[in-house]
Design a protein that fits this description.
This protein has helices at 2-14, 23-33, 42-79, 87-91, 94-100. By secondary structure, it is an all-alpha fold. The protein has one domain (2-100). 2% of the residues are buried. This is Putative cytochrome P450 71A28. It holds the Pfam family p450. Belongs to the cytochrome P450 family.
Length: 101
Amino acid sequence: MEFLERVVQEHVDESENKETFDFVDTLLRIQREKTNGLELNRSDIRVIILDMFLGGTSTTSTTIDWAMKKLQDDFRTYSEHKLFTSEEEVDNMKYLKAVIK
């Protein structure tokens, strides 16, 4: 949580000089303005940030697993289960090209 406290403090320190605002800045504004009667303290903000980070990690991991499985399936389909793949077969792998981009 020490890392998260540093992140929050950096946003507090930089808040007056910023032209763009991110998620942490929004949480700090809610804390300052008590938007809709919501009262957030520093600990609440750190927990929300941690929750967003962990949620993002989980969904990113799931998406990468899904993409890798689809790439494997496409590769097996186009390469006809051969050890080596021709350039022509690779040219037909549209999903592979999309992932590499």
